[in-house]
């Protein structure tokens, strides 16, 4: 590209090539990795494979076994270094996973507290409504009250008919 082509302002510049990724990295990616690693480190599968690995390592490197090249003689300094390295990476991953879980638990507790407060406010409102309905119901005739009143009226009317008919009939 010449200097004249580079100086043109009406044309967009060529994009520079970069080895870095163009999109933003996901900030949660390492957290998800840490949680997955911590979840795996706490399984029986991990303990079983780790036990098998250590047993094979020790059996391979004991001096009283068959004659073969040994890369870590007793007292197994390289194995100790490997286990220390594994522990030095596992501990922060587990702590990171615990911190993320604690943050999720805190958010869930806040949401539960808010839901409980709303439910409590709703219950108080419904309690006031039921109390006002009870007060209002005291002033309203109930079905049983109306039935008893109608029965007494019917009984009075029947008695009234009997007395009227007795007065009208000659003796």
Automatic annotation (TrEMBL):
Residues 1-28 are annotated as: Disordered. The keyword Transcription does not apply. Keywords: Membrane, Transmembrane, Transmembrane helix. Signal peptide: none annotated. The chain crosses the membrane at residues 40-62, 74-97. It comes from the Bacteria. InterPro entries: DUF1003. It holds the Pfam family DUF1003. This is DUF1003 domain-containing protein. It comes from Aeromicrobium camelliae.
């Amino acid at each position: 590209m010449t200097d004249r082509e580079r100086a043109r302002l009406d044309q967009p510049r060529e994009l520079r090539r970069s080895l870095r990724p163009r999109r933003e990295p996901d900030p949660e990616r390492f957290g998800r990795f840490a949680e997955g690693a911590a979840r795996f480190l706490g399984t029986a599968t991990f303990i079983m494979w780790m036990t098998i690995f250590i047993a094979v390592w020790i059996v391979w490197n004991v001096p009283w076994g068959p004659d073969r090249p040994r890369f870590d003689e007793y007292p197994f300094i390289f194995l100790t270094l490997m286990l220390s390295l594994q522990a030095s990476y596992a501990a922060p991953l587990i702590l990171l996973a615990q911190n993320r879980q604690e943050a999720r638990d805190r958010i869930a507790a806040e949401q539960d507290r808010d839901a409980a407060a709303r439910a409590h406010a709703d219950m108080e409102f419904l309690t006031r409504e039921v109390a006002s309905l009870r007060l209002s119901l005291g002033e309203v005739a109930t079905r049983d009250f109306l039935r008893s009143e109608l029965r007494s009226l019917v009984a009075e009317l029947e008695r009234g008919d009997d007395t009227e008919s007795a007065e009208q009939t000659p003796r």
